[in-house]
C-alpha cells in the first residue's frame, strides 16, 4: 500500500511493499549466514596471511621476534635431517599446514556470530606443538614463540573489511 505525504512543495510516496523488501534484504545482509560467509571468506584468510607472514619473519609486531634456537636444538634438527637454525617453529610443516587449512569454528548465536581460530578437532600432536609455540615449555626448556595473535591494527583492518563487505551487499537496494 502506498502512502502519500504532502509537505509544501514536496510529495513523498512510500511504498510499504518496497520498504519491507529493502528491510528484508538488509536483514539478510546483516544476518548470521552473511556474517558466517564474511568470517570464512575474509577473516580466516586474513588471519592465515598474518600467520604465514609471522612464520616467514619469525615473529612480528603482535607476538614479538621469536627467540633464536638453542645450539642443542639446532644439532637435534640437523641430525634428524631438518634445516639447522631456520626456519624457527617449522620442522615438519604440520603446524603451519594445519593453520593454513583450518577454517575456524563458526558459532552463530543470539544475534552474533563468533569465530574460534583455529577451530574444530585439532589433532593432539598439532595441539601440543601449538601450545609449546604459544606458551613455551619447562621440560625440555623451550621459550615461547607464539604463532597466534592479533592487535588493534588487525582488529581495525577486519572491521574495515567488514564495513566494505556490508556496503557491497547494500549497493543496489
Please tag this protein with its features.
about 170 residues; alpha+beta; two-stranded antiparallel sheet
Query: How do the helices and strands follow one another from N- to C-terminus?
Result: EEHHEEHHEEHH
Helix content: 40-55%
Q: Could you tell me how far the N terminus lies from the C terminus, measured between alpha carbons in angstroms?
A: 19 Å
Question: Whole-number average pLDDT?
Answer: 87
How many individual domains? 2
Radius of gyration: 24 Å
Number of strands: 6
Q: Strand count, sense and closure of the main sheet? A: 2 strands, antiparallel
Order of strands across the main sheet: 1-2
In quaternary terms, these chains amount to: single chain
Strand content: 5-15%
| SS content category | alpha+beta
Q: Uncertain regions: pLDDT < 50 for 5+ in a row?
A: none
Count of runs of 4 or more consecutive helical residues: 6
General shape: elongated
3D architecture notes:
The protein is of the alpha+beta class and 173 residues long. It folds into 2 domains: 1-30; 31-170, no CATH class. Helices cover 51% and strands 14% of the residues. It contains 6 helices and 6 strands. It has helices at residues 16-30, 32-57, 71-79, 94-101, 124-135, 152-170; strands at residues 2-7, 10-15, 59-60, 64-65, 105-108, 113-116. The strands form 3 sheets. It has a two-stranded antiparallel ribbon. The longest helix has 26 residues, at 32-57. The chain starts with a strand and ends with a helix. The mean pLDDT is 87.
Amino acid at each position: 500500500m502506498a502512502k502519500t505525504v504532502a509537505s509544501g512543495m514536496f510529495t513523498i510516496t512510500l511504498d510499504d511493499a518496497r520498504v519491507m523488501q529493502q528491510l528484508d534484504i538488509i536483514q539478510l545482509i546483516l544476518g548470521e549466514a552473511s556474517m558466517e560467509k564474511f568470517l570464512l571468506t575474509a577473516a580466516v584468510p586474513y588471519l592465515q596471511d598474518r600467520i604465514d607472514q609471522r612464520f616467514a619473519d619469525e615473529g612480528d609486531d603482535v607476538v614479538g621476534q621469536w627467540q633464536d634456537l638453542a645450539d642443542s636444538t639446532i644439532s637435534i634438527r640437523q641430525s634428524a635431517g631438518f634445516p639447522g637454525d631456520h626456519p624457527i617453529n617449522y620442522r615438519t610443516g604440520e603446524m603451519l599446514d594445519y593453520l593454513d587449512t583450518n577454517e575456524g569454528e563458526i558459532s552463530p548465536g543470539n544475534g552474533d556470530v563468533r569465530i574460534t581460530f583455529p577451530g574444530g578437532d585439532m589433532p593432539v600432536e598439532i595441539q601440543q606443538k601449538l601450545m609449546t609455540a604459544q606458551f613455551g615449555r619447562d621440560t625440555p626448556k623451550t621459550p615461547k614463540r607464539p604463532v597466534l595473535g592479533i592487535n588493534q591494527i588487525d582488529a581495525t583492518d577486519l572491521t574495515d573489511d567488514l564495513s566494505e563487505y556490508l556496503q557491497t551487499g547494500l549497493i543496489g537496494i
